[in-house]
Amino acid sequence: MATTAINLEVLDQTYQLNEDQIDFYRENQFIKLKQVLPAEILEYFGTVISEKVQELNTMHVPLEERDTYNKAFLQIMNLWTKDETVKQLVFSKRLAGIATQLMGVEGVRLYHDQALFKEPGGGFTPWHADQYYWPLSNDNTVTAWIPMQETPLEMGPLEFSAKSYLLQGGRDLKISDDSERVISKKLRLNDFQQVVEPFDIGEVSFHSGWVFHRAGANTTDRMRQVMTVIYMDRDMRLKAPENNNQQLDWDTWCPGATIGEVIDTPINPVLYSKS
Q: What CATH code would you report for 16-125+138-159+195-234?
């Protein structure tokens, strides 16, 4: 699909949330929003992102020989630095504006993006909370999960545990078989509601860094193509890493940032600001 054949203006047009939507997000720390992006935009970027994932993918081990983490998805990070077309989606003011409204902050920066492609026959993604990996000073983070296609249950859409950001146990677990077992038990014992629904074309979810989530296996013969963008408060400061993964994230996604200072680096630009 040629760039001239598609109108990308919607990427910078406001998607205005109502009070009920904002209240729902702040109570549950996730929300699914319909008609965020039109089908032709998703088809266009889906093609471009798929080509980049194929080009940059280094995982060539057969599915049956991988561990649980690597069966869950092909993962390519910061595509915006590798392709100017993908950058247009990642830098979308429409998406960044939604993140700003949900968190009630003055603006948002990019933490990083990642393509998450679940292969045909790909395994489940274990329960986890993203912010385990992030050396960030507060909880003002939100991830946009953008399916490039309609995503039925059989394809492994994102699942959420409503209000589970209140659960302290399990926050110290990386994505693994252990996180699936331990967190699943804790969520059941504390009676948190599990929400798993298909995604319509154009539907995008947003979730906070400490809400627990997972995804089922892809039992179809089609690739589940998803692009994600992780936003943080425009004024987010770097904290001292609490585990090796947070140190790795500091080195990789916030290079040059200083502990206690705003994470203002060339690869953490402000994507939206109210002023």
A: 2.60.120.620
Beta-carbon contacts of 183 under 8 Å, excluding residues fewer than 6 positions away, are 126, 127, 128, 169, 170, 173, 212
Q: If you compute the radius of gyration of the chain from its CA atoms, what whole number of angstroms results?
A: 18
Closest CA to 100 of 25, 40, 202, 27: 25
User: Any idea where the domains of the chain sit in the sequence?
Assistant: 16-125+138-159+195-234
Q: How far apart are CA 234 and CA 134, in angstroms?
A: 15
Q: Using CA atoms, how far apart are residues 161 and 111, in angstroms rounded to an integer?
A: 23
Q: Kindly report, residue by residue over 200-211, the tens digit of the pLDDT.
A: 999 999 999 999
Question: CA-CA distance, 26 to 212, in Å (whole number)?
Answer: 15
Half-sphere exposure of 84 (CA within 13 A, CB side): 1
Alpha-carbon distance of 247 to 239, in angstroms, equals: 10
Instruction: Write out pLDDT tens, residues 8-59.
Output: 999 999 999 999 999 999 999 999 999 999 999 999 999 999 999 999 998 8
